[in-house]
Amino acid sequence: MNFESLGLRPELLRALAAAGYTTPTPIQVKAIPDVLAGRDLMASAQTGTGKTAAFALPLLHLLKASGEKAAPKNVRVLVLVPTRELAAQVLASVQRYGDELRLSSAAIYGGVSERPQIAAAAKGLDVLIATPGRLLDLMQQHAVSLSAVRHLVLDEADRMLDMGFLPSIKRILGKLPRQRQTLMFSATFAPELRDLAASMLHQPAQVDVSPRNSTAVTVEHRVHLVDDARKRDALLHLLHAEPRQTLVFSRTKHGADKVVRFLDSYGLRSAALHGNKSQNARTRALDGFKAGTIQILVATDIASRGIDIKELPAVINFDLPNVPEDYVHRIGRTGRAGASGLAISLVGREDQSHLKGIERLLKQPLKREPLGEYCLPERIAPEAQKVRQPQRSQRPPREAGRQGHPAARPSQSPRGQGRPQQRSGPRQNSGRPGAR
Ligand code: AMP
Taking the CB of residue 151, how many other CB atoms lie within 10 A of it? Predict the structure, then answer.
């Protein structure tokens, strides 16, 4: 199967050749003919399967073929996405594939100035990619109208529901013409999502390219059962043992900041990405990571969807997500489009119940591997743990962890980074077990 046989326009075929795509992915093979035929679609696809192109290519084809133009403030294709990062990424893909088509496109999302977005909408947009909140804002200001939308895409629909966007989505749906094509993409389909799908899709073609709630087969999963009190040391050890670009997930924003400060105190440059950061800081961190100038990105689950980094070799779960589905999404950041990837999880006592939930969801046990001195002591009674923990934090803050840590000794650091000369804050917290 090749892209020519899917019946796409030559401009698109040239863009695909320029992007180095030779063969359509399974979701593209299945979805593109249905979308070209004008059918509604309900697609279950795991992350990194090429689903953006699966909807963007046929919709760009249809837009061009119709010969129409978007009227001022009007929109022809609306793509709803859960996060600003995904909006920016989908826009980049649409513009890459549509390079020769002379169609207008823009993204609308919060956290940045409205002005350029209002200006872009004023001219009319063939493709608008939007997060629900900012889109509703601009609709209320009459800066954009959805009355001429012909095609609607709900991307990462499960994530949108998780983020509480259902009421906003319903309000947006109320402003769309009934006569339209609707495509829904989601990695997982909970019953609530099926209800939404039933209300908005008309006899949809169903595409399911992967077993539900599965992760890419090219990802190797590794679980290290670690002592909570030594989690950060374990992370540092892993990052030093094999320096490579790594996305580290933390359950909380505060926890992500702490990990960054900790790594920084050992001379490992990293950046944090989470919802408390300004949009500019988020963009800078993500762009730096994509460009490879930032080697380690520490993120909350805001980064677990949508982010596409070429050949990201490893993801480390500093702690496990409470929602098992988020593990699937986090892991989807590596091993994308057939490349191999590594997913390491540091599982402390607190994480163990989450691990069980994840294994139940995946219907497979994840491989446990010992991690030397950082292992969770098997037979330590909870009382003994309690006694040990204060002892750790009673040690002098700065010297405590560093003296004994292999990474603190310049001779053992693969990156040649020695112990930083002055730092005060991070070590005061680092000995606390499970501090987030
Ligand atoms: P997505 O699942 O849409 O985020 O896409 C995952 C990655 O696969 C992106 O980097 C795309 O550029 C890439 N990709 C999508 N379709 C193909 C294809 N047919 N051949 C090679 N790479 C692709």
Answer: 21
Is 401 a member of any domain? Answer: yes
328: domain CATH number is: 3.40.50.300
**pLDDT score for 418:** 36
Largest CA distance in the chain: 74
**Among the ranges 53-62, 154-163, 238-247, 334-343, which has the highest mean pLDDT value?**
53-62
Give the chain's length: 436
- 429 falls within a domain: no
C-alpha distances in Å from residue 422, one per residue of 264, 266, 280, 398, 416: 11, 10, 29, 9, 18
What is the 429 CA–ligand 1 centroid distance (Å)?
Answer: 41
Atom from ligand 1 closest to the CA of residue 22 = 20
Distance 331 CA to ligand 1 centre (A): 16
Each residue of 222-277: pLDDT tens digit? 999 999 989 999 999 999 988 888 999 999 999 999 999 999 998 888 999 998 88
Question: Do residues 172 and 145 both lie within one domain?
Answer: yes
The pTM (predicted TM-score) of the whole model is 0.65
In angstroms, what is the span from residue 54 Cα to ligand 1's centroid? 9
How many domains does the structure of the chain reveal? 2
Q: Give the domain extent around 203.
A: 3-208
Strands 341-347, 219-225: pairing is: parallel
How far is residue 421's CA from residue 395's CA, in Å, rounded to a whole number? 19
In a domain, 214, yes or no: no
Which atom of ligand 1 is least distant from the CA of 51? 3
- Ligand 1 near 50 CB (within 6 A): yes
361 and 233 within one domain: yes
Q: Which of 1, 25, 27 to mutate to test the pocket of ligand 1 (most atoms within 8 A of CB)?
A: 25
- Cα–Cα distance for residue pair 11/334, rounded to 1 Å: 30
Pick the atom of ligand 1 nearest to 25's CA.
19
> How far is the CA of 124 from the CAs of 86, 103, 149, 318, 415, in angstroms?
22, 10, 11, 44, 51
Same domain membership, residue 148 and residue 77: yes
Does the CB atom of residue 233 touch ligand 1 within 6 A? no
The confidence band for 421, taking pLDDT boundaries of 50, 70 and 90, is very low
Amino acid at 168: S
Shared domain for 26 and 80, answered yes or no, is: yes
How many Å lie between the centroid of ligand 1 and the Cα of residue 337?
Answer: 6
First-to-last C-alpha distance (Å) of the chain: 49
Q: Are residues 148 and 249 in the same domain?
A: no
Q: In this predicted structure, what is the pLDDT of residue 27?
A: 92
